[in-house]
Amino acid sequence: MVLSSADKNNVKACWGKIGSHAGEYGAEALERTFCSFPTTKTYFPHFDLSHGSTQVQAHGQKVADALTKAVAHIDDLPNALSDLSDLHAYKLRVDPVNFKFLSHCLLVTLACHHPEEFTPAVHASLDKFFSAVSTVLTSKYR
Amino acid sequence: MSFLSAEEKGLVNGLWSKVNVDEVGGEALGRLLVVYPWTQRFFQSFGDLSSADAIMSNAKVKAHGKKVLNSFSDGLKNIDDLKGAFAKLSELHCDKLHVDPENFRLLGNVLVCVLAHHFGHEFNPQGNSLGPQTLIPGHV
């Protein structure tokens, strides 16, 4: 599955509108993931996962910053995300199924906060983008 | 089988009572066909599905989406016996329509996105979590 130029434009435009809220949305998406898919909590035994947790907020910001970088380098995701790809493959080893859960919750979060932007076409582009990022992050697993 | 607590059932029914079932159904099915275009394979007789706009305004898509969501509503009324409630539809989708169950999961996820889109800030993480829990067992 390939990101078309329309997809890339949709993602850049949408992410541009999110602006400084990215960290807040990253944290919300994580909270939704832990709530909806409790098995994901197993990767964070060292975290306070209660609502409003500063650790979740910080981690949400980290995830958002990585996605912002991915958007900025949307034409070359494998290079831009190479270090993160190594991290996930050799250190974190998060089971690939969990990327789908987080991607879904990112979509839900964006739908909640930006209903005007979240048209069917943008929804499709974002889903493809998150899928492309997930593929890169799991590309060195085996 | 009761996979939802009394409180969760209350949350689901509370949210569902505010849903415009007819409209949300069409939107969810439309978005399924836009976001996951391979699902169009089941709807070759539906006419023009050539673009997002064509899909979302397609009368057959809207009508079928309405039908699908009304079935969901029926399921919610029989939430303690989903298997019984959906037995006939289950046979139809398996033996006649030959739909890969993965498609039910995709539709469930799209429906959660549509509900989030409609309800915005009201769609809190508890509501979010009930989506997958309720909708996925629906594909018995």
UniProtKB/TrEMBL annotation, chain A:
Protein name in UniProt = Hemoglobin subunit alpha
User: What is any Pfam family matched here?
Assistant: Globin
Function statement: Involved in oxygen transport from the lung to the various peripheral tissues. Hemopressin acts as an antagonist peptide of the cannabinoid receptor CNR1. Hemopressin-binding efficiently blocks cannabinoid receptor CNR1 and subsequent signaling.
Taxonomic lineage:
Eukaryota, Metazoa, Chordata, Craniata, Vertebrata
One GO cellular component assignment for this chain's record is: hemoglobin complex
Please list which residues make up the signal peptide: none
Subunit annotation:
Heterotetramer of two alpha chains and two beta chains.
What's the family? Belongs to the globin family.
Q: Which residues form the Globin domain?
A: 2-142
GO molecular function list: haptoglobin binding; heme binding; iron ion binding; organic acid binding; oxygen binding; oxygen carrier activity; peroxidase activity
Keyword terms: Heme, Iron, Metal-binding, Oxygen transport, Phosphoprotein, Transport
Q: Which SUPFAM superfamilies match?
A: Globin-like
Task: Enumerate the InterPro entries for this protein.
Answer: Globin, Globin-like_sf, Globin/Proto, Hemoglobin_a-typ, Hemoglobin_oxygen_transport, Hemoglobin_pi
Could you state one GO biological process linked to this protein? hydrogen peroxide catabolic process
UniProtKB/TrEMBL annotation, chain B:
Domain Globin stretches: 3-124
Subunit description: Heterotetramer of two alpha chains and two beta chains.
Listed GO CC annotations: blood microparticle; haptoglobin-hemoglobin complex; hemoglobin complex
- Which sequence ranges are marked TM in the entry? none
Q: One Pfam annotation, family name?
A: Globin
Which keywords accompany this UniProt record? Heme, Iron, Metal-binding, Oxygen transport, Phosphoprotein, Transport
Q: Which domain of life is it from?
A: Eukaryota
Which Gene Ontology terms cover its molecular function? haptoglobin binding; heme binding; hemoglobin alpha binding; metal ion binding; organic acid binding; oxygen binding; oxygen carrier activity; peroxidase activity
Q: Which PROSITE patterns match?
A: GLOBIN
In Swiss-Prot or TrEMBL terms, this protein is called Hemoglobin subunit beta
Family from the record: Belongs to the globin family.
Q: Which GO terms describe its biological process?
A: hydrogen peroxide catabolic process
Organism annotation = Panthera leo
